[in-house]
UniProtKB/TrEMBL annotation:
One of its GO terms (biological process) is amino acid transport. Belongs to the binding-protein-dependent transport system permease family. LivHM subfamily. Pfam families: BPD_transp_2. This is Inner-membrane translocator. It comes from Burkholderia sp. TGCL-27. Signal peptide: none annotated.
Amino acid sequence: MFQSILVQALSGVSSGMVLFLVASGMTLIFGTLRVANFAHGSFYMIAAYLSFTLTRWVGHGTWGFVVSLVVAPLIVALLGLVVERFLLRRIATRAHQYQLILTYALTLILADAVKMIWGRDNFTVPRPGALDGAFDIFGTPFPSYYALLIVVGAVIAVALHLLLTRTRFGKVLRASVADGQMVGALGIDVPRLYTGVFALGAWLAGLGGALAAPVGSISLGIDSSIIIECFAVVIIGGVGSVGGALLGALIIGVTKSVGILFAPKLAIAFIFIALCAVLVLRPQGLLGRSTA
């Protein structure tokens, strides 16, 4: 029983790492631009569909997987750049309701675009041969691809931490969040900085979508399911906190995965139970800062 729980928990960590990639992009965007981007799940979905197309063009081997992992997130990052530069920037000074309406409208537009390009069929992306096996953990098999997800998620978490705390970009970004007008007065192009952050957030969502493509079915509606979990992660971890996004994603991933063993019908409910508990006990999130 212990082995089953351990492997199931590790499976939850792997799914939590994918969720972290997507949610970290959302929390970066919201923490910097103060935009609750409902279209963030659409970026994830588009990357998954692009991965299917790229692996079909290039091949289903390791090379095709690597190409999809590089190209799909870059295309999504470019899409995010266009969205911020030509749409969100034009309403940046208006009330938040306009941003919510715009990003929600984008989810509908992008969903219809996906439907026009790929149709309504469900697709799958084969795992590369080198990662299609499993290895034993205390006699219980654990998929090699899930181990890759854990490693990639950990690497991205460390890279984001270093980017935000040890580089000039991170220092300028944190300063712009505190006082954007002052940063602009120092000669820094703040709108360009915001565009870069939005593109980075879209790239993270695209990377999550590309990595998740070989795990399950690619279908219309995966944008809605991932965006709900992303909002839960941001609230549990704390708005604007990348470390909080990692903690929140792991909590949701492990809780959902282990919960399936004991109460399969309540697996999804466990996410919202955790969310409600955090809202009641610590409204600013586990690693968020209180505004009081």
